[in-house]
């Protein structure tokens, strides 16, 4: 059985900051073919579809489509705010390798 992805409280908190004062839109995390390692993450504000997995905390939602779900099984979606930049990151136990920037991976 594949475990669903998890979202950290830090990621939900950053999403709440992004959505503050505007229409609350979920963060979509998807996997697509491409990138320098074979697959790449697509992370964007979007709307939920009927067949999406919805992960929710304090009114904020992260959605994953059914095609991407197997690639993200057991993954942790987090937010990093470092001196070199701030971004949503994915710790993916299914990835056998990834590129230096962390947006592309192989399985």
Outline:
The protein is built from 1 helix and 9 strands; from the N terminus they run E-H-E-E-E-E-E-E-E-E. With 107 residues, it is mainly β.
Question: What's the arrangement of secondary structure elements?
Answer:
Blueprint: E1 6-7, H1 9-19, E2 27-33, E3 39-45, E4 53-57, E5 60-64, E6 76-82, E7 85-91, E8 97-98, E9 104-106
- Specify the CATH homologous superfamily: HesB-like domain
Q: Please trace the helix and strand order, writing H or E for each element.
A: EHEEEEEEEE
Mean pLDDT: 87
Strand order of the largest sheet: 4-5-2-3-9-8
Beta-strand share of residues? 35-45%
| Helical run tally | 1
The CATH first-level class comes to Mainly Beta
Q: Could you give the count of β-strands?
A: 9
Q: What is the helical fraction, as a range of percent? A: 10-25%
Overall spatial form: globular
Q: Mind describing the biggest β-sheet?
A: 6 strands, mixed
Domain Core: 6-102
InterPro entries: ATAP, ATAP_core_dom, FeS_cluster_insertion_CS, HesB-like_dom_sf
Organism: Paracoccus maritimus
Protein name: Iron-sulfur cluster assembly accessory protein
Task: Outline the structure in words.
Residues 6-102 form the Core domain. This is Iron-sulfur cluster assembly accessory protein. Pfam families: Fe-S_biosyn. By secondary structure, this protein is mainly β. It has a single domain (6-97), classed as Sandwich (Hypothetical Protein Aq_1857, Chain: A), CATH 2.60.300. It has one helix and nine strands. The chain has one helix at residues 9-19; strands at residues 6-7, 27-33, 39-45, 53-57, 60-64, 76-82, 85-91, 97-98, 104-106.
